[in-house]
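Predict both folds.
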Amino acid sequence: MVMKKRGAKKSGKKSAKKSSAKKAKKVMRKAAPRKAAKKKSARKPNAAFMKPLTPTGPLAAIIGSTPMPRTEVTSKIWAYIKRNKLQDSVNRRNINADEKLRPLFGKAQATMFELTKYVSRHLR
């Protein structure tokens, strides 16, 4: 007596029906209309960065004591560092302090990532 496996044939038919139903759903999803993309508005500057702050103490000796935004303070400090060639030649992330920067940093050398920490102490 040879027995036929009926379960295998039935499951094969069901899976074929299911896969064709899945394909039909995918086609329907693709055909759905997409929402219109939002128009990009002009980028507005952050008000906190643009607020004029007054440099005090050793920072005022380097960039002046007139009120200016944080972004401009950072630009002026970097201009001073580049003009006086204070960036370390081996490790460019380090800034070597001269007579004016030493009171600001409190040490002989600081990294560029520490720069904002030291600068924010002297802004009012």
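Second protein follows, with its predicted structure tokens after the sequence.
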Amino acid sequence: MSKKPDSFLGWLGRQVGFVNKAIKTDVTKPQEEQSKQPEVVYRADNVEEVPHPADPNLVLRRTTTDEVIREQDAKQQRSQE
């Protein structure tokens, strides 16, 4: 069974829901409580491009990302010691 395409009223209902949630969200909370993402200490992005050996019109691209991150809980434990 295929999914029915979204109607205008369905879209409008979602938009009302998004606005309703935004109104109810407490923005006075400190930023640390809202997001528990790790702190990025170091980040290096490398991109390597070489032509394809069989077809020079194609380009082979390799992208690597090196990151060193610090978890928030470990940072708080160090400050307490």
